[in-house]
Design goal:
single chain; about 120 residues; 2 domains; mainly alpha; two-stranded antiparallel ribbon
Length: about 120
C-alpha cells in the first residue's frame, strides 16, 4: 500500500514538474510573436471567407506593407521581417499594428485604477 501511495505521489509530482517546465519554455518562445494578420482578418466575423478572398486580402496587405517598409528604411530589421510575414510582434508601434490588423473588432475598456 505504501509503495502504491509513493508511486502515485511521484507520478503526480512528475506531471506537475513537466507541466510547469513545458509552460516555461512555451512562454519564452511565444512571448514576442503576436497574431497573424490574415488569420485575424478571417476570424473577425462569422462569415466564412473564400480562398480567393483570403488570397486577395494577403496580396493587398502585402503591397501596403512593402510600400510602408520602403518609405520607412529606419525600421528595425526584426520589425521589417515580421511585417513582411504579416505578423504582429513586440516592438511595433500602433500605426504598424493597425496596418496589419485593422481596427479592433472588439474593444474592452477597463475603468479600474491600479494605484488605489
Amino acid at each position: 500500500m505504501k509503495i502504491l501511495a509513493l508511486f502515485i505521489s511521484l507520478s503526480i509530482s512528475g506531471m506537475l514538474l513537466c507541466g510547469c517546465a513545458s509552460d516555461m519554455f512555451l512562454e519564452k518562445r511565444d512571448a514576442k510573436l503576436g497574431p497573424y494578420a490574415t488569420t485575424y482578418w478571417r476570424d473577425k466575423d462569422t462569415r466564412q471567407k473564400s480562398a480567393r478572398e483570403v488570397e486577395e486580402f494577403d496580396e493587398q496587405l502585402q503591397l501596403k506593407v512593402d510600400k510602408y517598409i520602403a518609405i520607412h528604411p529606419e525600421l528595425p530589421e526584426e520589425v521589417k521581417k515580421w511585417m513582411s510575414y504579416l505578423h504582429v510582434v513586440v516592438g511595433m508601434n500602433k500605426e504598424q499594428v493597425l496596418m496589419l490588423l485593422g481596427t479592433p473588432y472588439k474593444k474592452k475598456t477597463n475603468f479600474r485604477t491600479w494605484n488605489r
